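Job type: complex structure
Entries:
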Amino acid sequence: MPVESSSSPFLVFGAPQIDEAEIDEVIACMRSGWLGTGPRVAQFERDFAAWRRVQPSQVAAVNSCTAALHVSMVAAGIEPGGEVITTPLTFCATVNAILHAGLTPVLADVDPHTQNIDPAAIEAAITPRTRAILPVHFAGRPCAMDRIMAIAKKHQLVVIEDCAHAVETEFRGQPAGTFGDFGCYSFYVTKNVVTGEGGMVVGRREADVARARMLALHGMSKDAWHRFGDAGYKHYQVLECGFKYNMMDLQAAIGLHQLARVEPNWQRRRELWLRYDAAFAGLPIDLPAAPEADTRHGHHLYTVMIDPDRCGISRDAFLDAMNAARIGTGVHYLSIPEHPYYQRRFGWRPEQWPHAMRLGRQTVSLPLSPAMSDADAGRVIEAVRRIVGHSS
Ligand SMILES: *Cc1c(COP(=O)(O)O)cnc(C)c1O
């Protein structure tokens, strides 16, 4: 096994691509003296609304996708104790947001091919207490929104789409996040559009979005820009017990330019994706399913399956070997019921959702950042081929 030069730089998983435009805008924001929620957040909201082809009154910027999920569920007005059906193959924030809203998560297993929540499993999980479905467009691949919306309509359920991976995703020509009552996006550092920390609520009904926006800022009737701006002091009223979830102009300063490059960055990730597909075609590992016809895949995560019986190496040993090759990787995700908290609270066992359990125990996400060079991708390819035993 060739020894990697210890001088090769560590390839950081999910490293964002930051250009001079973002840096200049952050500096301009700081020089302006207005760091908090203000004109740059308003511009970012308008730009994001245009990107997802909705009205500006249908979006509200917040400081994370977790916050977006939380205020969406509160704004949906679901009474405490209502059940929300979601996927076991997601980040813990999806489930924690359900709990913070006073609701009960119910897991429905994924389709092993798409890795997205299986509509048939959703139907099987419906009870008289079910109030909402929370699909996650995993890795940027759209969920079966036609079937999910049909189930929601039949049972009169709220739909909240977790679009943390899915800023570019479309299903039959329609943007992910615009099918349900709410779509929640993430601008965390590893996501497709970055603000450092950040998120966005997109809502079908203006009144719901207005409520989500108010909940995201203490339940106050006016935000600081409208109180302290140049139009004169305005009193505010507290109308609800809200949260502190507002996005800052400093964050939007980054996001404005990230969003302007969303398309070329997607193209670059797609290029890397296709290169990986070709390079790994003969290896004893499962690759991501090809994007479905008439959809746009967000190409957020490139996940391969390390089945020890086929590869002769365990998933965790593969992670270590990649690390030794100075390549950062990710695991998206150990299934939710693998975690002690949910086991304790709900008595869940991973075996109850066998597809998510197997995927979570075998999956590895390879670097797929637009900041990667062709040489970086070459290093990833060489390392994967060597580690799973098919050097070429
Ligand atoms: C990243 C992520 C979140 C949380 O996003 P934040 O902006 O970090 O709060 C939620 N769901 C999924 C599927 C994610 O990947």
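Summary: Residues 64-66, 90-91, 93-94, 136, 162, 164-165, 186, 188, 199 surround pyridoxal-5'-phosphate (CB under 6 Å). The chain has 15 helices and twelve strands.
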